[in-house]
Design brief:
The chain has 13 helices and 13 strands. The strands form two sheets. It has a seven-stranded parallel β-sheet, sandwiched between helices. It has a six-stranded parallel β-sheet with strand order 9-8-7-10-11-12, with helices on both faces. The protein has two domains: 12-149 and 315-360, no CATH class; 164-313, Glycogen Phosphorylase B (Rossmann fold). By secondary structure, the chain is an alpha/beta fold.
Length: 361
């Protein structure tokens, strides 16, 4: 749907871009199966010539993801391991490929037939992006829980926070945009929204929920922003709000905001309970009244300390160290006992320069 790295809003593609670039920098032979307009400093195996959303396509993408899986399957014998980011579309590949295949799951796992599908594929190696994401499926072959890492060192910092709240994400009900608008109304602050509005359901939601708030002067809608505009938006906000009443599998917005020193007010649900430390780098809330209380208290939080701790906890090196350990365990399982690969507590290991990794997206 998007190139790697993505030009603006994206989560999975940004993680893949970071992962591939750092593995390449460490001396591994990396190839990426992705849209042909991706720009990476290593081998690119094109799936479609140009990313679908760039061409204006807004239909179902399942067949394209399966097509990408087929390309990765053909390329797999050239590599030591395949790392999939195609959700459940590569489960059969993981079971039958001639080399190990590990799948990082980026979505929620309790809907749309996923519980039944996971039950049928207990053997395939999986990586969770949070403890919350995997908690309903303890019988799966989890080979790690790896929190995302991003290059956060260059994120901007504003000495004076602004008088607005920030929302970054998609224009969908699950992201809590309606609650964010209601909170802004309650605390009498402007809400600045940087959101993707591409899919038909996002366009309908925008017309129903966001446009009236724009007309009333509550919301300033900025569209889908790239890092150059989005990161200063974080840095200048009183707080970033993430009030979606759904189990967020991870939530890159939280760590991006905190890397600028701006606290996050998030619903006490999903992986936000693992990334937000209540009263330290933000607040976890259960309803709008608590969210309003949080807005009144965010100014007391130490923004410099928020930056320091966030950039350490969600560093790229930490994420890559943990993925390298997973790869090594799957390529040479007899050499590394499973208890050596612990969730987010791995010692850095010297990379194997000859390890060949194919990433499919």
């Amino acid at each position: 749907m998007l190139p790697v790295p993505p030009p603006s809003y994206a989560g999975t593609e940004r993680v893949i871009a970071t992962l591939g670039a750092e593995l390449h920098r460490r001396g591994h032979h990396v190839a990426l199966v992705a849209a042909g307009d991706s720009e990476v400093p290593y081998e690119l195996i094109p799936s479609v010539d140009a990313s679908l959303w760039k061409t204006g396509y807004d239909g179902d993408v399942a067949s394209y993801m399966q097509y990408t899986t087929a390309i990765a399957w053909d390329a797999a014998p050239r590599f030591d391991i395949v790392h999939s980011h195609l959700e459940n579309h590569t489960f059969l590949l993981a079971r039958y490929a001639p080399v190990p295949v590990v799948t990082t799951l980026h979505g929620r796992l309790d809907v749309a037939g996923m519980p039944e599908l996971l039950e049928a594929f207990r053997d395939v190696p999986l990586v969770a992006i949070s403890d919350s994401q995997k908690r309903w499926h303890t019988a799966q072959n989890w080979v790690g829980t790896i929190h995302h890492g991003l290059p956060l060192e260059s994120m901007p910092f504003a000495k004076q926070h602004g008088d607005y709240l920030a929302f970054v994400g998609r224009a969908t009900a699950e992201k809590g945009l309606a609650d964010a608008i209601e909170l802004a109304t309650l605390v009498k602050m402007k809400l600045k929204i940087a959101a993707k509005v591409h899919d038909p359901h996002e366009k309908a939601y925008f017309r129903k929920v966001v446009q009236p708030a724009i007309d009333e002067g509550i919301v300033e809608f900025l569209g889908e922003l790239g890092p150059a505009e989005r990161d200063p938006l974080y840095a200048g906000a009183r707080a970033t709000v993430m009030l979606g009443a759904w189990p967020e599998p991870f939530g890159l917005v939280a760590i991006e905001s905190m890397a600028t020193g701006t606290p996050v007010i998030g619903r006490r649900a999903g992986a936000l309970t693992e990334t937000i430390e209540h009263g330290v780098n933000g607040f976890l809330v259960d309803d709008l009244d608590e969210a309003a209380l949080a807005v009144s208290r965010v100014a007391a939080l130490d923004r410099a300390e928020i930056i320091r701790s966030t950039r350490k906890r969600f560093a790229v090196d930490r994420m890559i160290d943990e993925y390298e350990a997973v790869y090594r365990r799957l390529v040479t399982p007899q050499l590394i006992p499973s208890d050596r690969v612990s969730d987010r507590s791995l010692d850095a290991r010297t990379p194997d320069p000859d390890l060949r990794v194919a990433a499919s997206r």
